[in-house]
Amino acid sequence: MNKVWLTIVIMAVVTYATRSFAFVIWGNKQKSSSIIEYFGHVLPYSMMGLLVIYSFKNVSINQSPFGLSELFSSLVCVILHLWKRNNLISIFGSTLVYMFIIQVFL
Amino acid sequence: MNFIVMDSLWQNYIKKIVEMSMNKETFKKALQLTSPVFFGYIFVAIAFALLMKEKGMTIWHSLSMSIFVYAGAMQFAAIELIVSGVSLIQVAFMTLLVNIRHIFYGLSLMKPYREMKHEKVYFIHSLSDETYSLLCMNKEYDTKLMLMIGLLNQSYWVSGTLIGSLIGEVIAFDTTGIDFAMNALFLVVFIEQWQSSKEHVPALVGLFSTLLCLVIFGKENMVVMSMILILFSLFVYRRMNRGKCYE
Questions:
Q1: Cβ contact A38–B120 (<8 Å)
Q2: Taking CB atoms and an 8 Å cut-off, how many pairs form between chains A and B?
Q3: What is the ipTM of this complex?
Q4: DSSP string covering A18-38
Q5: For residue range B118-163, what is the model confidence (pLDDT) as tens digits?
């Protein structure tokens, strides 16, 4: 069972290393170079696109219901958000819709 | 070993955290901002703890993972890795592969990082996808609020792990699908960012690069490949001079 603990230690170290990487390399200079500033500015937008897709990576579009429950709930989320502009309403509303769909219909 | 330094560091930490909690305004605001994460984290962490228990791991394994690793997707992957008995090298490699996206979170958080002292050690640790997303929504936050958001998010994650380890089976209602809250959170932050900027190319680059890599490389290798594609595309975009407005 010692191997489980070693696994946890390795995961913790590697995860912390990835999280601190940018800070260690660029964090101690007083001013970042312009390319780093550029990436620091645009990457949040790209990363959020990545996270949106990444969070749906387990959806299978080849078999029934072809990802339709996720698509529909996402649409609910987007519409709710454009309408009410309230994070809580959009997130809870669409999650409830999703839970209802997959628990009742599927 | 310099225990005195360690000791004062530790005390500093406790002091800092107490100070933050004493600041009611900051605490209330962080509580409000993190509430969507609360439900997602609690139930996903319960699911994680239950799965760990099912595979024969103890509460101490689950808790230390949620405290010291604190990476949702990776913790679930870890269960598979442990059960299938892969080598430790492979564990390190897998962790790097899945968490490589975190490398770039720091680039957008240099300013608060430079303002922080010892607490930056925890700030780095607290940067999960969800914490990063909340911090991205508004860059005007002060460092105390940023730390509090991270601390609260992790406390939800650890609480869920604890609940799952202790009383998991007792949960009365069916929570299947509650993890959609995380998908919804990313969607909401995406929309907020979309509307806060006139420039939509970076968002579209992220969306379509990742989609393309998911289709081509599959979900195991998508993160690394999309990061490369995103960096490359953004670099080219800047070269095309149109990215100039960001400088």
A1: no
A2: 247
A3: 0.89
A4: HHHHHHHHHTTSSS--HHHHH
A5: 899 999 999 999 999 899 887 677 889 999 999 999 999 999 999 9
